[in-house]
Design goal:
By secondary structure, this protein is mostly helical. The protein is built from six helices and no strands. The longest helix is centred in the middle third of the chain and has 27 residues. The radius of gyration is 17 Å and the shape is globular. The N terminus is likely disordered.
C-alpha cells in the first residue's frame, strides 16, 4: 500500500509528526509567557492560532479543512467578558494538557509498528483540540462540532477501506 493512498496514516517517512511536534513545542513556549492570561485578547488569539495550526497540520480533505477553519474563525470570540482571570488560568492548564496529550501520542505513534495505530494521530489531535463551546458564538457550536466529528470519521473510514482491500 502506498503512502499517498492513505494520507491520514502516518508513516515513519512522513513529515506530519515532526510538523505537529514543532507546532506544539512552539505553542508550549508561547502559552507559558509570563502574564499572557492577563491579556485576554492576546491569550484568545494564541489559543485560536493553536487550534487552526493543529487543524492545518493534520491530513484531511481540503474542502473539509477549509470549511472547518472558516467556521471556527467566523464563530470565534476574541473576548469572553464573563471569564475571570482564574478561569483563564484554568483554561491555560487545559491548553497545556492538550499539548501534552498530543506530544505523548506523537511519541507513541512514532515508535509503534502497529498499522492500526497510525491513523490515530489525526483523530487524537482533533479530539484534543483545546477549545470549548464557550469559545464560539452559541449559534455556531453545533456546526463546528459536527464538522469535527465528520473529520474524525474520515481517517477511520480510510483505514477500514484499506484493510478490507488489503485482505482481498
Amino acid at each position: 500500500m502506498k503512502n499517498d493512498e492513505m494520507p491520514w496514516i502516518v508513516k515513519s517517512e512522513s513529515k506530519q509528526p515532526n510538523e505537529l511536534y514543532s507546532l506544539i513545542e512552539y505553542y508550549d513556549v508561547v502559552l507559558k509567557r509570563r502574564g499572557l492570561v492577563e491579556r485576554e485578547s492576546e491569550f484568545r488569539k494564541n489559543k485560536l492560532g493553536l487550534v487552526l495550526d493543529l487543524i492545518s497540520a493534520i491530513d484531511m480533505p481540503d474542502d473539509l479543512r477549509a470549511e472547518l477553519i472558516s467556521a471556527i474563525i467566523e464563530a470565534w470570540r476574541l473576548q469572553i467578558p464573563e471569564k475571570t482571570l482564574a478561569q483563564r488560568e484554568k483554561e491555560l492548564d487545559m491548553l497545556l494538557g492538550s499539548i501534552e496529550t498530543i506530544r505523548v501520542t506523537i511519541d507513541y505513534d512514532d515508535k509503534s509498528t502497529d498499522r492500526s495505530s497510525k491513523w490515530r494521530l489525526g483523530v487524537m489531535v482533533l479530539s484534543n483540540l483545546p477549545m470549548a463551546p464557550v469559545d464560539f458564538r452559541s449559534e455556531d457550536v453545533s456546526k463546528i462540532y459536527g464538522l469535527i466529528s465528520k473529520a474524525m470519521e474520515y481517517p477511520h473510514q480510510r483505514y477500514l477501506a484499506s484493510s478490507t482491500s488489503a485482505q482481498l
